Amino acid sequence: MNNSVDAPTPPFVPNYLLYLLAAASEAASERFHAHVRSKGLRVPEWRVMACLIDTDGSMVTELARYAMIEQSRLTKIIIQMDTRGLVSRRSDPKDGRRVRVFLTPQGRALAEELVADARIDEQELLKSFQGGQGDHIKDTLRALIWHLESGDLKQG
Amino acid sequence: MNNSVDAPTPPFVPNYLLYLLAAASEAASERFHAHVRSKGLRVPEWRVMACLIDTDGSMVTELARYAMIEQSRLTKIIIQMDTRGLVSRRSDPKDGRRVRVFLTPQGRALAEELVADARIDEQELLKSFQGGQGDHIKDTLRALIWHLESGDLKQG
DNA sequence: CCAGGAAACATGAATTTTCATATAAATCTT
DNA sequence: AAGATTTATATGAAAATTCATGTTTCCTGG
């Protein structure tokens, strides 16, 4: 007979990939998201503005994919941002169904300021994350995203 | 004079660490989260159950940290889950302020089923992600989380 | 040209989430 | 040991999100 105690079963959550991804995303974003809110924007609004810095004038559906926001939700966010003067909406002359979204001068000024802040924040995160490791994490994440989006992993 | 066109400015968003983390989390979770919903649970409810598999009987505040859900929101989720018979709430006899949350037998059965499914899903993700790379990503994420939570990166 | 269908957005009602604060129990202070 | 603080959870109203579906515009074959 064996008197020794069993090794405790290891916990599930802290070793689960989807938890690690969500926790890493949250932890890494916390500080900058607080900064965004201090500037009077909610995080989804900041995401819209960051996307528009890259692709000003894109249509709502494109923006929804790029910013990872569901379409009807994005529509409502954009309407609010329009009201606040951060973006303007114009229907596409070539296709009346499409609504193209543009940064206003005011919106662009804020967006550029925040993108600059975001770059600094990112550099601080990466450089504090011991030399070189920092570079690799972005590559790893890009590879993971590419793998997940392309392969579709057997259409379960 | 130089006739050559400038190289286009590289886009910000697709190379931004916080975007990569959020996008990786979303892409990796999509399939399993759909599975969770097909079982009649919303994602935050699944998170609560997964946490309780590890730490049944924990108090609301602990659970909130572990499941990354804000406290007052968690309270409401737990009340719903209690009503549905997935968990039960008992006030701690040692400290009347605390509410300890337990899986019911029915809740535990569902939680165990989903944890098993989650393990399978995770294995499929990792093994499809070319040999060995899979292992490393979890280590990288753990390191990042540990770094972010411990260091606090200068108290900006 | 027209009917049918698809694509792009908008909308409304039900539900959730957020934020500030209330309540209640434990702990500290003097 | 009474009062002041802190900790734990609950609550309510305002705001945001979700989901299904409506509306408008475009496209396609006959």
UniProtKB/TrEMBL annotation, chains A, B:
It comes from the Bacteria. Keywords: DNA-binding, Transcription, Transcription regulation. It comes from Hoeflea halophila. PROSITE patterns: HTH_MARR_2 (PS50995). InterPro entries: HTH_MarR-typ, WH-like_DNA-bd_sf, WH_DNA-bd_sf. One of its GO terms (molecular function) is DNA binding. SUPFAM superfamilies: Winged helix' DNA-binding domain. The keyword Manganese does not apply. This is DNA-binding MarR family transcriptional regulator. Residues 14-150 form the HTH marR-type domain.
